[in-house]
Amino acid sequence: MKRKISILMVLVLVLGLMPAYASEYVIQSGDMLWKIAKDHGMDYETLAKVNGIENPNLIFAGDKLNVNLVKKIDLLTTNDFHGNLVGGYESGAAKLAAYIEYYASMNEEGTIILDAGDSFQGTPMSNLLYGAPVVTFFNAAGYTATTVGNHEFDWGIETVIETMEENGAKYQLLTSNVYKDGVLASWATPYMIKEVDGVKVGIIGMSTPDTAVTAHKDFVGEYTFEDPIEIATALVPELEAKGAELVIVLSHLPAYQDFDTMEITGELVDFANGVSGVDAVIGGHSHNTVNGMVAGIPVVMANKNGRQIGNITLYYDTVKDEVVISESKAIEVRKGELEIEPMASIQEMVDAYNAELAPVFGEIVGVMASDLIRDYNTTSAAGNWFADVLREGKGADVAFTNAGGIRIDVMAGDVTMEKVFEIMPFDNTPVTTIMTGKDILDVLEQGATLSKGMIQISGLTFTYDSSKPEYSRVVEVVMADGTMLDLEKEYSVVTNDFLAGGQDNFKTLGNFEWSNPYSEPLLRNLLADDLRTKGTYTPDNTLRAVDIAK
């Protein structure tokens, strides 16, 4: 009997100490919203938000309030940072870190900072140091997790993992759909659970299946990239069983938004429409600004290079165990006008690396006589230069290179080695083979689909008709000597080792035996040497692929 009384007394004491949250509160005369919110364990802004109160200072006696305990969870996101640590044209790591710190301070207990992949590859500083400064930046900014983008494979995923380990990464690298031999890759962590403000948030990492064709075959050929919808559908219940109250998908899935209609399209939309139990989706890969709702799920993508911060806000009702309000927006950083100083520790790091690398980057290798412009959807001056350097360097009949491998435009004037690194950050090398005219035609037909951009060419020009069905668009091919392409004749061909694997969907190129790529100089160095030799280079703006339908 005494034991029962003791247990009862303990229960009474415990329950007496617990806050009693009613689901509804009737406003009394003299009530203040901030006081009601405090009594029910919330901040007044959240209480106002969930009750649709526009002016928190204007409430009326007799009105009813939902006073379930609602937690505000903010996701601050970046994507496709591509190692853009140096400020100037881009935001730079120091300014971006300061902006993240500023917005995180608005909800200190309830903010999670995430990155949606392609964090390292893309700038000379990051590339030469295999992303080490990016790890330092992400640590300082307080990131919780990143996902695996296609460019995480550019040096081999093992290199990225090693860089993170050696530099003491305090955040997780997540992906759930990179498989090897039918099971999740041994190095992959599929998800994590992060508790913020008492709410357990499950975070699933998701890579884009496009990685299989947009990363170097040597580094992704052993992997399969499984269907994101199927993987997420299987993992959501697993996370819930482990106590996750919210589930976020941190993905490198692409999306596009028409800001006239606000319509969102792309792989990210297909994913959001196909899953259930997911409370927010973050995307990347396509370098766009995207924010809105898809199938009731908030989605966001924050452009590229740290130009923006994505922000998804979830108002989670802890009594109902559901998100009652969700919002999505993109915050300007590069064009942002907040009067805050760049994060000093990050700026000092960037300055120190700049000073260390200045002897390499500062060398002027030549002069660009006029602007060298790239174009993804047709041949361009930049593409002509890349392809010409390849063909001339190997004495080949034909050269191919991919539009996606040309990363920036180069303005007229002095060209430093740093600029060469920026236009060609990838460690690609030239490789050669022999192809028939019919094989060359097949490559041109693939380029004319524009599915992965127009193939950049040297040694020939061609016309095509985009109104025709795919793979039957090429009308005429003229070789450099003025003769027509002979479908039966054999030609010497040079390309880069990325395309030689059949990547970017140029599958014909993957059918050949190519010369050893590891015995060749980097294409980047060939470009620099070409400038050194010529002194001044005048861009060739000739359109080498002409669409007669336009």
Kindly describe this structure.
With 550 residues, the protein is α/β, with parallel strands linked by helices. The chain is 29% helix and 25% strand. It is built from 16 helices and 29 strands. The protein has a six-stranded mixed β-sheet. Strands 9-10-12-15-17-16 form a six-stranded mixed β-sheet, covered by helices on one side. The chain is elongated.
Identify the notable features of this structure and list them briefly.
elongated, 25% strand, single chain, 16 helices, alpha/beta, 6-stranded mixed beta sheet, 550 residues, disordered N terminus
Estimate what percentage of residues fall within beta strands: 25-35%
Oligomer: single chain
Poorly predicted regions: 1-21
Helix content: 25-40%
Q: Sheet with the most strands? A: 6 strands, mixed
User: What is the number of beta strands?
Assistant: 29
The end-to-end span amounts to 93 Å
Strand order across the largest sheet: 6-5-4-3-18-19
Residue-averaged pLDDT:
93
Query: Helix tally?
Result: 16
Global shape: elongated
Structural class: alpha/beta
**Rg result:** 28 Å
